[in-house]
Each structure stands twice: as structure tokens, then as C-alpha cells.
Design a protein that fits this description.
three-stranded antiparallel sheet; mainly alpha; 19 helices
């Protein structure tokens, strides 16, 4: 056996002991590289090639023992904690939905939450790298389909476009949760495309934001813009486009400054909601209702002062405020803490991903979930400048629940198996 064949055979034998197939090639490359380094060093000292190869292999140790040790190190990282947090949020959402529900509707509500948890598990065990293999086709396909649906839809409910699907009407505001992943995949497909790639990513983000404004979903457009900025800055800072990092960041941030200036005018006008809530001037019906609910809430247990009809309105429009009034301030604080821990841990894990596909996929989900939580919490207490976002898994409707469950499952799949792409980007876009 030739020296190079001997080294490769040893590396293959080590790799066969690693059960995680996705990371096996990286382990074999690492072992083979180390063997060749040792082999080259021995040859440089004047040793014959055959002897140098045998000594390098001997020094590494028994292939089976080394492989078993590496197998214990390289395994998918079970996301038990994140699954538990997501499950608790879903369980909380189900409990909130069931509190005022009629007995006849409780089975359907519970079934939808169990189905959502099952969908999350399916996506959790799915292979997210399939997204990277067809990144550009998937992203442009989503954008084209969304544009067609939004621009041809005619039916509006409460002023917003909906898509009739038999007996159901699907709100197109849900696209705000899909678009970040769509942009993430397009950014991934722009590897090494230079400044043209950055401009194309910016153009797609403007198109998607424009579709959200047309629905209209101002809250979705603003949250999508913020998520887009975060993903583009991450890609530019890591040199993904093959350009100078500082110039890339400037190219991303300068247009963002213009968008922020435009958004600031909207925020200034909508800021009257916050100011009127704080001062008591020109209170709307819901603002006054929230004040009464908060003032009448107990630390633990149900509060007083609201009629049954007003309590029902809280449940439909401001679920967290409803929890505070019905179950107490302590219960509402626990929900806020639960959502905060989930989002903070998710952001920390996403930023630690070494693979760009893993990082962008995870960021596209967790950034939107975190901003949904922040806006939904403020909205539930009358401080919201936007409406219609809801808190993830709590008071978002069946379609929103299913969509967030699927996206969360994909994010946790990234955290579970993202290490397989850590060494380099082996799932290249077409």
C-alpha cells in the first residue's frame, strides 16, 4: 500500500466510527490533514516514506479507539432546554386560549396547539441544509409567489388583504414572518458576489417590505426591515460578499439610515399612542380599558372592576393584559420572563453559529420572534405603536401559531446540527 493510501485508509477507518454522517467527512479531513503533517515532518527528517507513514499512523493510535472518542465528541446537540421553553410558551398560549373558551371549542383549541408542537418537532428533526442547496430558487420562488398573491388579492378584512382558502381566510400579514427566512436564503446565495450582491439583497428586502406595506402591515414591514438589517450586517461583517468589511457595512448601513428616517416619522406620529397612555390625554377605548384592567389586577388571582364583555375584549385583543387581570400580575411577569429567556438564548445561540447558512437561518427566525414578543408585550399594555403582531404562540391565531412553530423547529434544527457546517461552507448554493 502506498504511503498516501495508508494515511487515507486510517482516516477513513476513524471516520467510520463516527455515527453522525454529516460531520464524518470533516472528521476524516481533519485526521488526514494531521497525518500528512506528521508524515511530512518525518520525511523532512530523512525517514523513508513508507516508514514515515507507518510511524504517523502508529503515533495516532488505534483507529477504532480514536474514532469512538471522536464519536462521543461529535454528536447532534439536543436542544432540550429550548424545546422545553418553546413548549412552555405553547402550553401558556393554550391555557390563555382555553380560559374563556366555551366547552364546545376547547377540543379544537387544544388540538391546534398539540398539532403545532408536533409540527415543531418535525421541523426540528428535518435537514435544514436542504434550504442551502436550493437557496436562490427557494428565496426567489417565495418572493415571486408572495408578490403574485399580494398584488392579485382583492378581499380585505379590517382593511388588510386576506387569501380565501375554502371556509378560511388566511391573513397575508403572516408573510412578515416568512420574508426574513426568504431574504436569509437569498443573502446566503450571494456568497462572493461583491457589492452587486449587497445591492441585490437590498433590492429584494425593499421589494418584500413594499409588499408588506401594500397589505398593509406596517408593523410587519418595520419588523422585517429591522431583521433584514441585522442579517445583512452579520453577512457583511463576516466578509460573506467577498468585499472589504468596512465598505460593505457602510453600503448596508447608509440606506438603512434613510429607511430609519422614514420609519422615525411614522413612529413619531404613532408615538402619540404612548404619550396619551402615559398622560391620560385623549385615551382610546382600549387604552382606558387597559388602565382599568391593570389598576384592578391582583398580585395573584383574578382582579375586579371589569365586566364579562370587557374581559372578553381583553382576551381577544390584548392577551397578556388579560392574563394579568384574570390570573394576576405574577402570571404576566412569568410569561414575559419566559419569552425573554427564550429570545435571549436563541439570539446568543444564533450569533455563535460559525456557518453562514446556520447563522442566517437562525437569525431570520429569532430576530422576528424577539421583535414580535417585544411589540406584542408593549401592545398588550397599551404602549404599542403598532398592532397585529401578537406574542409568539400566545394569541396569534391558528395560522400564526403553526407558522411560528414550523420556523422555531427549523431554528432549533440549526442549533442541533449546525456544527456539521462549522468547518466550512460545504452546502454551496447552486
Amino acid at each position: 500500500m502506498q504511503p498516501d493510501e495508508k494515511l487515507k485508509a486510517y482516516a477513513d477507518a476513524v471516520g467510520q466510527q463516527v455515527r453522525w454522517k454529516k460531520i464524518r467527512p470533516a472528521v476524516q479531513r481533519e485526521i488526514e490533514a494531521h497525518l500528512y503533517d506528521q508524515f511530512s515532518a518525518y520525511c523532512a527528517d530523512g525517514m523513508a516514506e513508507q516508514e514515515a507513514a507507518e510511524k504517523a499512523v502508529r503515533q495516532m493510535g488505534d483507529a477504532q479507539s480514536v474514532g469512538l472518542q471522536l464519536d462521543r465528541v461529535h454528536r447532534p446537540k439536543a436542544q432540550t432546554g429550548m424545546l422545553l421553553l418553546a413548549g412552555l410558551l405553547m402550553l401558556t398560549g393554550m391555557a390563555v386560549s382555553l380560559l374563556p373558551a366555551q366547552p364546545s371549542g376547547r377540543f379544537g383549541t387544544a388540538a391546534s396547539y398539540f398539532a403545532a408542537f408536533g409540527l415543531m418537532l418535525v421541523c426540528y428533526f428535518a435537514d435544514f441544509t436542504l434550504l442551502g442547496r436550493f437557496a436562490r430558487k427557494i428565496s426567489l420562488g417565495i418572493a415571486a409567489l408572495a408578490a403574485f398573491v399580494v398584488l392579485t388579492a382583492k378581499l380585505r378584512i379590517m382593511g388588510r388583504l386576506v387569501l380565501p382558502l375554502g371556509p378560511w381566510n388566511l391573513s397575508l400579514t403572516l408573510l412578515a414572518s416568512v420574508f426574513p427566512l426568504c431574504l436569509a436564503l437569498f443573502v446566503y446565495s450571494m456568497r462572493g458576489k461583491g457589492y452587486a450582491g449587497i445591492l441585490l439583497c437590498g433590492g429584494l428586502s425593499v421589494l418584500l417590505a413594499g409588499l408588506l406595506v401594500h397589505i398593509p402591515s406596517i408593523s410587519g414591514a418595520v419588523l422585517f426591515a429591522a431583521a433584514s438589517l441585522g442579517m445583512l450586517c452579520t453577512a457583511a461583517a463576516r466578509g460573506w460578499f467577498g468585499t472589504e468589511k468596512k465598505k460593505s457595512l457602510c453600503l448596508v448601513l447608509l440606506p438603512a439610515a434613510a429607511v430609519c428616517a422614514a420609519a422615525a416619522s411614522v413612529l413619531f406620529l404613532r408615538g402619540a399612542n404612548v404619550w396619551s397612555h402615559l398622560t391620560g390625554e385623549n385615551d382610546s377605548f382600549f387604552s382606558a380599558l387597559v388602565k382599568r384592567a391593570v389598576n384592578g389586577a391582583a398580585l395573584i388571582g383574578e382582579g375586579g372592576t371589569l365586566t364579562a364583555q370587557e374581559t372578553q375584549l381583553l382576551w381577544k385583543n390584548m392577551p397578556l393584559c388579560f392574563v394579568m387581570y384574570r390570573l394576576g400580575v405574577a402570571a404576566a411577569v412569568l410569561i414575559v420572563l419566559l419569552a425573554a429567556v427564550f429570545c435571549i438564548l436563541g439570539l446568543a445561540k444564533a450569533m455563535r453559529e460559525k456557518s453562514m447558512l446556520a447563522a442566517l437561518t437562525a437569525l431570520s427566525v429569532i430576530l422576528m420572534l424577539a421583535m414580535q414578543a417585544a411589540v406584542g408585550i408593549s401592545e398588550s399594555f397599551g404602549f404599542g405603536m403598532f398592532t397585529g403582531t401578537g406574542i409568539p404562540f400566545i394569541g396569534q391565531g391558528t395560522a400564526g401559531l403553526m407558522l411560528n412553530a414550523a420556523l422555531t423547529g427549523f431554528m432549533l434544527s440549526v442549533f442541533r446540527t449546525g456544527e456539521a457546517l462549522r468547518e466550512n461552507e460545504r452546502i454551496l448554493p447552486e
